[in-house]
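We treat protein structure as text, and this decision shapes the records that our systems exchange. Such a record has a labelled line for the sequence and another for the backbone structure tokens. The record that follows is passed on verbatim for readers who wish to inspect the format:
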Amino acid sequence: MNGQIILDPLLPWWALALLAAAILLGGGVALWRGLSGWALRTLAGAILIAALAGPSYQREDRNPLSDIVLLLEDRSASQRLADRSARTDRAAEALGAALEQRPNTEVRRVDLGDGQGDAGTLMMQALGDALAEVPRGRVSGIIALSDGRVHDMKHAPNLPAPMHLLHTGQPQDWDRRLIVEGAPAFAILDEPVTLTLRIEDMGAAPEGVETASLDISLDGEEPQRFDVPIGREVELPLTLPHGGRNVIRFSVPEAEGELTARNNSALVQINGVRDRLRALLVSGEPHPGGRTWRNLLKSDSSVDLVHFTILRPPMKQDGVPVSELSLIAFPTRELFLEKVDDFDLIIFDRYKRRGILPSLYLDNVRDYVEKGGAVLVAAGPDFASADSIHRSPLGQIIPGDPTARVIERGYTPEITDLGLRHPVTSGLVEGEAKTGDWGRWMRQIDITPKEGHVVMNGADDRPLLMLDRVGEGRIALLASDQAWLWDRGFEGGGPQLELLRRLAHWMMKEPELEEEALWAEATGQTMRIIRRSLGDDVGKVMITRPDGEQVEVPLTEVQPGRFEAEYEGPQIGLYRLKEGDQDAVVGLGPAAPREFEATIATGDVLQPVIGPLRGGVMPLSDGLPRIRDVRQGRPAAGRGWIGLTPRNAYETISITRVALLPGWLVLLLASAFILAGWLREGRR
């Protein structure tokens, strides 16, 4: 029960003040004139003013409510190091029992684990959700059992009561951590890229240890070991060995006594790209599509193009003085003997033997292909003539032989069954169709295949585009000079730009255009395994997990030549994939999850929310602190104790109100004082 006097005036307070002033003024005038009843009349006026103020006695029937203490129990990954989890369990049970023994106290226990993905410990979000479920006026304190490594401080709520951290660390805890900085997503092949590494010891690390071993492994191969200093940045120059994705794993052997080895390794995935792709375009007899290849290669900023057009062969005799010619001599020796290995691709566009390139030079080009180079022959009618480039040493590696027949009629190019699976031509038409809504070409050189793959057919299903591998290199034969019709939009055109771009990049060995390939795309802990093959079927992919355990995953064909599967990796780290003679590596998740970036227990992270309300940070290794009541605004922690602020919250059940000056009493008292004043003045 609780009672108090309240006022409920019938008039505004300013009106009551004016009435009170008038009554006092009248009483003063009466006193000045010597009237004997001035005091009685003033008392009567005071009673009337008091009645207008509406005084009453209000009595509340209250039900006291318990104080609420929030007990936050951190169950994140870093809390499972050493014996932190058991220490947290024991402390939670003991604190829960001690708090429940306190009068008028209720305990709300809140468990929090790892955030989704690699979000870390989201204590502030859990605390905000818990505060939203209880009246803030009843919260007398917040106690957190944690290592203090919180990763969502930007979401810290305003606290209604002091917060205390009882951290689970030990004085002797220490940990070693590997940090890789400055790792780019892309790097240029054959050029060094510098990574910055640092090995640092945290906590009570052993004294006198100045170096640590560092193992470096590329694409899952045997690692190389180096000794690096501890606590200092080390710059590591690295040259990528191949194009595409390079997976580099850095690791430090686990030291005796450190908390965890989960932060002793780092995975870096860098895509190797060519700085510049150098192409040599040799154009023979001019024709309407002569600029097709030039425009294609010049439009790609990553291609350096050297283009020569043979406008004046040696046998041409037109009587023009040499001094009046603005043409330059074809630098055949420099290009085809001295500099041929500097090019990634050589294109012969309607080139025929004119005595400019001796057989020795073309034989050198053949050797260039066998050693890893690439040659594309875009054939015109001259390819079927006696001066054909096929009748040179290059003919030994060209995948088709001309029959000397030139087909001069319209036809629509179509993709072969094999072409639907080949990365150069797959996807040019939708589904499993062999042709799209394409315009016709008007000329084709009849050839007889002898090697390689026919990926496109032309008139009468004769080979139109053939691809082949020769030694370490590649060669392609396009048996028509009419691709420019698509570029001009003839009869609707066709995918000329995409086809020629893919063809050029396949010949320059871009990894994404390999016929036989295996790779994986990682999203969190899920990998999408992709296998591309020219075959009709592939086997299961053998996955070797970071712990060495192996599992087989079947693949499903999602489109011609492309097989896929999804696999949820149970662990964080490096996975090795193998199917047939294809293998790949992929890293899932961060090598060192956020929970293990810093593992030494601390109160510094939570200080912004603990400090303002004067809470405390104490190690559980010193034992459980005592619990005291403290007034709001006073220090809430001291040596060996933490404080809770009693809230004295209550619930009002009923309210009773009684008027102190009922109307009959006001009338009686006011009338009595006025009558008494009149009688006193009348007797006088």
Observations:
- The longest strand covers residues 193-203.
- Residues 517-588 form a domain with the Immunoglobulin-like fold (CATH 2.60.40.1930).
